[in-house]
Give the backbone structure.
Amino acid sequence: MSVGSVFAYPALACLAVMMLVPVEAQAQVAGSGAAGMAGTGSGMGGTSATGADSGATGKSAGGTGHGAAKGARQLAITPYIEVDQIVTAELSPGSDVLTWTQLAVGVDASITGRNNALAASVRYQKQIGWGRASNGDVLSGVARGYTTVLPGLTLEAGALATQTRVGSGGSALSGGTLPGTSRTNIYTVYGGPSFKTRAGDLNLSADYRAGYTKVDEPGAYGGAVGPDIFDSSVTQVADLEAGVEPDVILPVGLGVGGSFYQEDISNLDQRVRDMQARGLVTVPVSRTVRVVGALGYEDVEVSSRDALRDADGNPVIGSDGRYRTDKSAPRELAYDVSGLIWDVAVMWRPSRRTSLSAHVGRRYGGTAYGGTLAWAPNDRSSVNLAVYNNISGFGGQLNRVIDQLPDDFEAVRDPVTGDLRGCVSSLNGGTCLSGALGSVRSAVFRAQGFAASYSTRFGRLDAGIGAGYDHRRFIAREDSVLAAANGTVDENWWLAAYLSGRLGREAGWSTSVYANWLSSSDPLTGNVTGYGGSASYYRMLARRLRASLALSIDGASRDDTFDDDIWTASALAGLRYSF
């Protein structure tokens, strides 16, 4: 088993536990800054105790999020085993042809009930190479859910295991993750309780989340893609709010809140810590519109230690290709901003199918803005948009994106490699992960961007498209080994889409496409473009036995004239038996 599989066990264990004990999905955008100070603080979740709930940002719009199917319980758990034969042809710059036999075991699960919900897809596969083709194993999966422990107390968790291709400078592309390609494994898991109650006229809410993220490549990096590659981090988030709704004491609602965010990154002991306290005033403008004003104080710090140096003063690189941390060196600040912050948010919810929030204010020493839109025009389609602005590391950002996933999705997988594509299939909530995976630098960053998705179901067809933009400005000390990363800007435009359908009761098909446009101000990274598509067909041979055929093509190009474009095409024929 590869090194990547060893580090996968925490995520795998969480996914397995979640199949037995589902965990809760909140109705807020996961601390992405979408609702600013007015209701979410800096956490993954959090609600406004002032009556200005930041709106069901996709999980409750349309009434199909958790808690919508009151009294109805649906349970579907489908384990399976699979045997595939894969042929991959290098189209450019070479012409090599390789063959694998792929053995896979997995489970797809969906649980929907009054007090519990879970969506999960977990798959482990062993790839056995023929001739010069190398062996490999891959764990991939995504899970999201909740369980109600007591009235007002829920537990929530999520996990992700996926692969990407990492280039120089930390740029990351999806697709092309068969053995022999540059494959990097990414694992993350998080969870924690949420509590809501009333004490007389006072609304109280509290949330806590803890998460762990690991980036691992089979074999050592050897410095091939640079030592500033994320290793692992532990994230902690807490939010607390108390308040009264409008017309209880005054015509306006009043509230107070506080939040805490900390991410400890193993690379050079980096730490980002964000603490804030705030007061909130909620003004009901009409039956469907509320304005929330917040005023508070925030303290944000980013700190780290320097790398261990050799006798010549050069930084020491460990066997994993990353800088070794000098544990004896003092922790030094790279970013320190504190002072008054303010925020004004407008929240509009004209019906159970539509929710909109937008805010602008001062945070991180400058102007901050964001917003969310969730619109379900009917029971068969959903539109979601989130605009975010925050400071975190790679692990914290990935936890936030997973927290936005709904708890009733179906995974969209590459039909050849079996890995997750950039989005999941769902009519609820944000459904795409691509924006968080475009760069795996270890340095802390200020992230700004948006993610939009549209999903629909008509007749026998399911379709979805997601697009977004992620802008990261990295933060590091000028006198540290990461000085070159300070002020570096990585940008990622991404697109992912899928379309699938059934051909009667015994057959079906699916297609998917993706594209990433990555650019960096780092001259060693440059611009990278990745794109690909796939198509598959299946037919039931017996009640539980399915035969599949699939084709895929993946490409990558760089703006460096010394590098040729890379193109590969793959084909698969396989059998799956479901229990």
Helices lie at 3-20, 394-404. Residues 1-71, 220-224 have pLDDT under 50 and may be disordered.
